[in-house]
Amino acid sequence: MSNKIKWGVLGGGGDSLIGVLHRVAASMFDAYQLTGAVFNPDVHVSLAFAKQIGISTDRIHANLDDMIAAELARPEEDRIQVFSILTPNFLHFPMAKQLLEAGFHVICEKPMTMTYEEALELQKIQQKNENIFGLTHTYTGYPMVRQMKQMIANGEIGAVQKVDAQYYQGWINPLIHDQEQRATTWRLNPEKSGISCCMGDIGVHAYQMLEYVTGQKVQSILADLNHLYADNQMDIDGTVLLRLGEYTKGVLRSSQIATGEENNFTVAIYGKKAALKWEQENPNYLYLLEEGQPLRVLKPGHGYNSEFSLDGTKLPPGHPEGIFDAMGNIYKGVAKAIRGEKFHEGEFPGMTDGVRGMNFIEKSVQSHRDGNVWVTLES
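The chain above was modelled as a monomer; its predicted structure follows.
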């Protein structure tokens, strides 16, 4: 009998941009078995997709209610253990809530919920039921991001003085200038996306990354957002000033109208002794800067890297790893947690990251709305 974790998927069907990413990631390390799904609101589409990717249709269901009822009717050893939620934002909270209350573990795309209030409610449910909850801030799975985190924790760059994160995309630029065209994307519909587009979609990645690698919490922010058109309800660009402490400050820049940019996510942490820089589009290079010294480039798979970094490296040095591998490392961490195995702190983002992320999104909108003023994040 297979000892793989039985895994279910909500969303992520044939027209999903992220479905294949999650399926490939879950197949790494031979930890999961795709067992059942609701790929699409139309069960016929779900069944057809299941046949297309070669999985049994016995546990393909029309909706989540039917899926949960059918799984709970099975012997515990035969039930799906964890579900991935790969749907649009507005479905994350109700689906996660229902799954956690039914006793299942959850892996969820970000943002975790539509509101900070929902995030707090979900946190209480998870704490009560002691479920494993993973949030796919995918970039934390890169080996050199993990190396960056470990080096900062070890004090190798000294006390952190300044942080700088940039996440620039240009994909909305062809749509935003035409009122009819911009109505075609759910990202610009607050009923499906939430109160923020840019900060809610990619700005929150940069925010979470800064807290992840530094091990520090952002205490207060000042945001200046851009909607570009008066009739566009959602931010598509913005700059946020950050205070992590009295003498530790920084900036977060995020845009979906940075013309020609693809997925330009960069993080720089400046310490008293040295600095570290990482770029998502070249993820296998971590740059170490020191006063009076030549630039050093650290790469994955080498013995000089931390145990944490090496644990997320699958190939020998010189063999590039990418976004599938990063997501695979997050799935690997969740699998360890489900099995009760020892895992590194930071192997997968979780409920706290989701709660803090939603707080950041709402406070960014509040800061901008109230006249670009400093607001305090909840602790």
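Residues 323 and 331 are 13 Å apart (CA to CA).
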